[in-house]
Amino acid sequence: MALNAVLGVDIGTSSSKGVLVGLDGTLLRSAVREHSVDRPAPGHVEMDADIWWDELVSLSRELTTGTDAEVVAVGLSGMGPCVLLTDADDVPLRPAVLYGVDTRAVDQIARLGEELGVEEIRRRCGSDLSSQAAGAKIAWVADEEPELFARARRLYMPSSWLVRKLTGAYVLDHHSASQTTPLYDTVARRWYAPWADRIAPGIELPPLRWSGEAAGTVTAEAARSTGLPQGIPVITGTIDAWAEALSVGAHRPGDLMLMYGTTMFLIHTVPGLLTDPALWSTVGALPGTRNLAGGMATSGAVTGWLRELFGNPGYPELLRLAEDSGPGANGLLMLPYFAGERTPLLDPQARGVIAGLTLSHTRGDLYRAALEATAYAVRHNIEALEKAGGDIRRVVAVGGGTQGGLWTRIVSDVTGRPQELRTTTIGAGYGGALLAAQLVTDASIDEWNPVREIVTPRPGTAARYEELYGLYRALYPATADLVHTLAAHQDR
């Protein structure tokens, strides 16, 4: 008798990941497809949507071929908020504009803030306009590519694009919509027509559903392409970080999820609407939930950059060298703003800084400084969350960066916070699989993915980091004017 299973697929910044999961939460198979983004101009970060579908097809074929498991539902997630505009026949008009790592819409953010009112945008939409706001990027396309924009009829993100390809349904989840500022009213939980019609005229905005609701079923054509059974349900899906939070059970008031990935993301679940100009207030992935969130523009992207500069040694070797370096990286201090910074600085012109370099510093020192820099940035975000009214009672870590143990230990030492690690930390694909399983069974994340370890701060190391954190916070204002000038040279 065939084993029933669910397929989870997540489209990330640097790779797509797929998991085949039994209905009891057992990870049966996993696979990865690496890809890269396009950077056609300074501050522009894009990706061809054909990659998303091609990799879903490839992952589905690999994970379901030669197994007795029968897929009964599909879960999807993807990076976001992104802007993929298509014509009326669902032909993409240009590559998708990616989330907050793309900083092109500076002029549109300023103009819309002036026209609509910064305070009114925050009151209605929960967040200020920033590089994370998908609505501002739609305005950029309208301003800079008017002939193309005149043909735009639909708006997609990675998960909703895959839903369309699999089922024919045109839908978007409420959480993703809440990051299209200023198109979505987070208080009323619906599109706000006066601003949507003004910023996205001619675009039929998708009907809204919750992430775990069924969007439709796999069509005969999609079944032929993917090897999935025709007629099985597909969830509406959501943005990857929110699926990651679900994958480790971080969705109750007081929970904070830390996602260790190409970028670092923080999602704090709050009992009611909280807003702050330095953070993002969103509707949650589940009905009735709200979040206060933050995100760095880089984290794993910096460690990956260093690894490439070092000749691509294995990550275990780099972690060993960083462990040998010791707390403080032998006097190195880094600002990890290599692609600008999102929260709480909201400064697309910020740049990376490495202070204290000498001829005696090693690869291990540099790698350790990068890990510590992200930990300082996590603490900065946590302080901003609490200043905004958040009440963090539990921290749960997830993502590829939790492997090896050193990075999570550094973050706990710097923040003074224990971190809960679940048995499975593969992330968003697993969260999507959970939502898919809940369409057909009473799946529970605490049964699927129990706690494996608690990472606790080490008092002696924490004291050392207290001093260094003060220096970290002083370094940005001390260098901001200089790096902004350098950023202007880079944009020429």
Automatic annotation (TrEMBL):
<protein>
    <submittedName>
        <fullName>FGGY-family carbohydrate kinase</fullName>
    </submittedName>
</protein>
<dbReference type="InterPro" id="IPR043129">
    <property type="entry name" value="ATPase_NBD"/>
</dbReference>
<dbReference type="InterPro" id="IPR018484">
    <property type="entry name" value="FGGY_N"/>
</dbReference>
<dbReference type="Pfam" id="PF02782">
    <property type="entry name" value="FGGY_C"/>
</dbReference>
<dbReference type="InterPro" id="IPR018483">
    <property type="entry name" value="Carb_kinase_FGGY_CS"/>
</dbReference>
<feature type="domain" description="Carbohydrate kinase FGGY C-terminal">
    <location>
        <begin position="257"/>
        <end position="437"/>
    </location>
</feature>
<dbReference type="Pfam" id="PF00370">
    <property type="entry name" value="FGGY_N"/>
</dbReference>
<keyword id="KW-0859">Xylose metabolism</keyword>
<feature type="domain" description="Carbohydrate kinase FGGY N-terminal">
    <location>
        <begin position="6"/>
        <end position="245"/>
    </location>
</feature>
<keyword id="KW-0808">Transferase</keyword>
<keyword id="KW-0119">Carbohydrate metabolism</keyword>
<dbReference type="InterPro" id="IPR000577">
    <property type="entry name" value="Carb_kinase_FGGY"/>
</dbReference>
<keyword id="KW-0418">Kinase</keyword>
<dbReference type="GO" id="GO:0016301">
    <property type="term" value="F:kinase activity"/>
</dbReference>
<dbReference type="InterPro" id="IPR050406">
    <property type="entry name" value="FGGY_Carb_Kinase"/>
</dbReference>
<dbReference type="InterPro" id="IPR018485">
    <property type="entry name" value="FGGY_C"/>
</dbReference>
<comment type="similarity">
    <text>Belongs to the FGGY kinase family.</text>
</comment>
